[in-house]
Amino acid sequence: MSFFRPMRILLLTMLTAMVIGGVHLWNYVEDMTEPVLVPINRSYAGYSTIPQKVLGLKLEQFSFTGWDGGEMLAVIAEKDGEESSRQLTITGDLTVNKVERLGVIDYALICVDWDHGIRSALPLAESLTAAGITCVLWEPRGTDNRRPYCTHGLKESADVPLLINELTRRSGKESPVIVGVGQGYGAGLMLQAAAGEPRLAGVISIDAYASLRESITRTMPESPFTLATLSLMDLRINSSVGFECFDVAPVESAAKLDRNVPVLIVNLAQDNPITNINDAVTIYRQLPSDRRDLWTMHTHKDAPDATTRSILPARATERTLPVVASLHKDEDSAVIAMVHWLNDTFATSLDTPHVHVPARPLLTSDCQL
């Protein structure tokens, strides 16, 4: 009896420690999972969904039915009245560097945040409308925020064909020319949408991560429990929304795009664990497009007069060739250059005969995220 009593105490102590450790681990998993399920942009907390007035813009509100059968709020944005500072930046450049082909674009769909979708997309809309492009912004969460959890474009990308249906009806054209412009969350959504929607004639993807799972892993401190934590996060996400982290991989969607679709990959974020230049390079390398471009920001590591940089993928081998990225000194210059890319590359591509050949093979090494 004297032997078994200490054993019972030891086992009880070990069991208690395991329970306490399990509770702490689950609380940690909950803390890590919450911003994945509900990535709130607090910059617009307390503001209305659609602003009543925006300098330099006229907003026309409309609605369409989303993939889940609910009502989606959207606005058509056009340049109007006194110009904002962003618009002045664009128009100042265009007085010197003319653009003549942008009139072929009927709509630019702009998506940035899952939360506060219209407000977060306004800065890009200001810039593009200054060049005469009509922009369309919408709320990925739907009316009354009825979608409580984010799927990072996995399900929300199905809104895009329905939005295009409504814009086609409103335009009165059989096939309006539509380009998708996304940043962050919206960049991943646009790549996923374009993979299955041929009516998106071009894509600008700004700061998309290649894989949600890889992005989450980079934000976690190194630990022997990382894989276990990721598995528990997948369990938590799956129980709430019905998907797992590895289901969201814009890099795989990029590989499915039509070879004739011009795509611009832009890396504005620097030293960001969620999305970085390696993500941009990985997505760029997967694109089948014959009109693909990669841009990033000029840093102190580049020569002062450098306009390009050769970059090797993170998983490069001896036979891997570097990709060449164009360099931009700041975000304003990059946005101006995007307007010219739409004029010089995208609009011009509409007159170029389509290439009816198989897409390039998938680079499996890049997709092993």
Write the layout of secondary structure elements.
Blueprint: H1 4-37, E1 57-65, E2 71-79, H2 85-94, E3 107-111, H3 117-130, E4 135-138, H4 159-171, E5 178-183, H5 185-194, E6 200-206, H6 212-219, H7 226-241, H8 250-254, E7 263-267, H9 277-286, E8 292-297, E9 308-311, E10 323-328, H10 331-349, H11 364-367
Parallel strand pairs: 3-4, 3-5, 5-6, 6-7, 7-8, 8-10
Antiparallel strand pairs: 1-2, 2-4, 9-10
Helix pairs in contact: 1-7, 2-3, 2-10
Walkthrough of the structure:
It is built from 11 helices and 10 strands. It has helices at residues 4-37, 85-94, 117-130, 159-171, 185-194, 212-219, 226-241, 250-254, 277-286, 331-349, 364-367; strands at 57-65, 71-79, 107-111, 135-138, 178-183, 200-206, 263-267, 292-297, 308-311, 323-328. The chain is globular and about 90 Å long. The protein starts with a helix and ends with a helix. The relative contact order is 0.11.
Characteristic terms for this protein:
369 residues; Rossmann fold
Query: What is the end-to-end distance?
Result: 55 Å
Within the CATH hierarchy, at the fold level, what is the topology? Rossmann fold
Low-confidence stretches at least 5 residues in length (pLDDT < 50)?
none
Helical fraction equals: 25-40%
Radius of gyration: 23 Å
CATH class: Alpha Beta
Say how many strands there are.
10
- Main sheet: strand order: 1-2-4-3-5-6-7-8-10-9
| Domain count | 1
How would you describe the oligomerization state of the chains in this entry? single chain
- The secondary structure category is alpha/beta
Which of globular, elongated, flat, extended, rod-shaped describes the shape? globular
CATH superfamily: Alpha/Beta hydrolase fold, catalytic domain
